[in-house]
Fold this protein.
Amino acid sequence: MNIQEVLHRLRINPTNSGTSTGNDWLKEESTPAITSYSPVNGLAIAEVQSAGAQSFEHVMKTAEQAFVFWRNVPAPKRGDIVRQFGDELRKHKQDLGTLVSYEMGKSLQEGLGEVQEMIDICDFAVGLSRQLYGLTMHSERTNHRMYEQWHPLGIVGIISAFNFPVAVWAWNAALAWVCGNVCIWKPSSKTPIVALACQNIIADVLKQNDLPEGISNLLIGNAAGTMINNNKRIPLVSFTGSTKIGRIVASAVASRFGRSILELGGNNAIIISKDADLEMSVIGAVFGAVGTAGQRCTSTRRLIVQEDIYEDFKNKLVRAYGQLRIGDPLDEKTHVGPLIDTDAVMAYQSAIEKGNTEGANFIVEGGVLEGDRYVSGCYVKPCIAEVENHYEIVQEETFAPILYLIKYKTLEEAIALQNGVPQGLSSAIMTLNLREAEAFLSVNGSDCGIANVNIGTSGAEIGGAFGGEKETGGGRESGSDAWKGYMRRQTNTINYSNTLPLAQGIKFDL
């Protein structure tokens, strides 16, 4: 793989700017440059210029002008633009997936899978563009008709995280576009280069259709995020990231009466029943825990295992971990790539140290890998620790491949353990017992936004609304009726009589 050839095909200039409205690249000399380094080998990929107030204001004006046009384009025609974007993603899938893998560190298969998620949400949004349904309802007044309709909000701010550097943007943008909104995207400063590539692709689609460039906009740098959160001209901010930063975003947006879609931390558990298929359970647990090096918001953090099968399952799990291959994520034989950067490595080491202090028993030891294959310093060993659910470190989300093993007796106890953390994103139970499965999905079961049976916690299908409860933020993206979050509801009443009856029978004669 020649990454320079990939960058060339995706039209990435090693000194490209970080602010874009369509094909219009801006550069503010007074703002700092950001260099993106690959966690694969520690080498610089490219340098981008961060956005300042001047760039932000230019983007805002361009987006506002584009919205006035875009909102009047019929929704099915907006959907056709998204269809064309999806077709272009298909053409660039290999290069884009490779760049995702190289810049973020996830395996090539996962990088390609992330681009496929972008393609899938485009397909979903195309169909949705003909299904932005309102309701009709009966009026209490004679010869009146009532209905509700949905209108676009305007400018949607999208702040995405490094772990899914392109898919989560596409989840938001594809829906926002077919709903008639325009978007301003602030990607993670840890993965800005793949964002530039995506902006190039959508900008070409817009240009080929003679559409305003401001329908899709890109701003790089933390200052851009702050400006998005505090600007009252942006009615909706979709933020994906940590619970800590999510609190700041929610407060800033709410203070100006804006809306926010928050996709924050997860502390996801799989309950392993004594009636589970253990071989299948091991596969689900291992992939959930080590996929993307434990840097998914849906990564499996905890395994809650029934005491009768605990030792057997633990032994199977340890053997499976012994077969993991850690290394270059662009090598198809690799299971686990690097963490995003050395800060993530320090957080991993700190979590292990804290776990040891609290009494964790590490049955698979962790550690930072060294040597020529791990020159970036970002490669770590996936580890497993026997713990109690109440340990402080277990209650936290550590973005690293650390798996906590917990024992339970009864299903009621297991569900209480599963729910006994501040986060509420994804959850699962492995069981062939129908009663257990239904209990887990019932009102007395999992308190998470996602609850699965006989599959793991990680991953999500495009057709279902994605999001969680409690400190995960309560937001919903992607499928189902998540589109309503990107629109404003309007109730309409039409009087087609020759009188004006007042509500509740009030008389007001002149």
